[in-house]
Specification:
With 181 residues, this protein is an alpha+beta fold. The protein is built from 6 helices and 5 strands.
Length: 181
């Protein structure tokens, strides 16, 4: 039996006034990584938390360049996106111990892309029973900690020497499973 992932709290994003231009490009141009929930800046892509998550720990990996299609990526962007996706999975496993993941890219509005013009890949940690009666029956979502608390926990694993209030550009490790690299 197919089980849907209900996320009625995302209506806040759907109904919110959208900013002019691309919010990812704006965030990448700013130096306020904690405020923008950017966990890791690689050479060509970044890992950031989704401000309107489907689940705690919902991350995105996106190129710095404003591109819409998979075919628009350079070889470097392809490699770094996949390397950082693998690293994000390793970090989430270490910090949050999920029992599974949904990982994917929505290309176009018909596929569910909320931001169609800037390619990004979603990484959603999942637990058995992670959707329950609260969002369905009472339009209430139970989130065990604030986005910034989750940010601080994840940031520490992406860069063990990082100060949670200040993030700098880091090199992607050779082996994404090596959290100390």
């Amino acid at each position: 039996m197919t089980r849907p992932l209900w996320a009625p709290w995302r209506v806040e994003y759907i109904r919110s006034e959208k900013e002019e231009g691309c919010f990812l490009c704006r965030m990448f141009a700013e130096s306020t990584d904690r405020e923008n929930l950017i966990l890791f800046r690689g050479t060509t892509v970044a890992v950031l938390m989704n401000r309107y998550p489907y689940n705690s720990g919902h991350l995105m990996v996106a190129p710095f360049r404003h591109i819409a299609g998979l075919e628009d990526r350079t070889t470097e962007e392809i490699l770094e996106m996949e390397t950082l996706t693998a690293r994000a999975v390793a970090v989430l496993r270490d910090v949050m111990a999920p029992q599974g993941f949904n990982i994917g890219i929505n290309l176009g509005a018909a596929a569910g892309a909320g931001l169609e013009d800037h390619l990004h890949q979603h990484i959603v940690p999942r637990w058995v029973g992670d959707t329950n009666f609260m969002p369905v029956m009472s339009d209430t979502r139970v989130v065990p900690e604030t986005l910034l608390d989750t940010y601080d926990l994840l940031l520490e694993k992406f860069n063990p020497k990082a100060d949670a209030t200040q993030m700098t550009k880091l090199e992607t490790p050779k082996d994404p499973r090596n959290l100390e690299a």
